[in-house]
Specification:
Layout (H helix, E strand, L loop, with lengths): L4 E2 L2 E2 L3 E5 L5 E12 L2 E8 L6 E8 L2 E5 L4 H18 L1
Antiparallel strand pairs: 1-2, 3-4, 4-5, 5-6, 6-7
């Protein structure tokens, strides 16, 4: 059975974020990457050019997304993501 494709993402490359206010948003997974000694995940809300970046921890088949609350850490992680994206372009 072929997987459904949506906005260029395969079905297993899409996750649904649920925000504190109950709003849900489907996002394509751009990738998991290392920066400053931790793992992070870059997500693309479907139908947009936006990118969300979260801390990422994997537990076997499950995972956890972690808000990056430290502004300095966030800036370093964004710079690393942009460098990786430029390499692939």
């Amino acid at each position: 059975m072929a997987e459904k494709e949506l906005y260029g993402y395969e079905e297993d490359e899409i996750i649904t974020l649920e925000f504190d206010d109950g709003v849900e948003e489907e996002c394509g997974i751009l990738g998991v990457f290392d920066a400053i000694g931790k793992e992070y995940i870059a997500l693309n809300p479907l139908g947009t050019e936006d990118v969300y970046i979260y801390g990422y921890k994997e537990f076997g088949e499950d995972y956890e997304l972690i808000d990056i609350e430290d502004e300095e850490e966030f800036e370093k992680v964004v710079a690393e993501f942009e460098a990786l994206a430029a390499e692939e372009a």
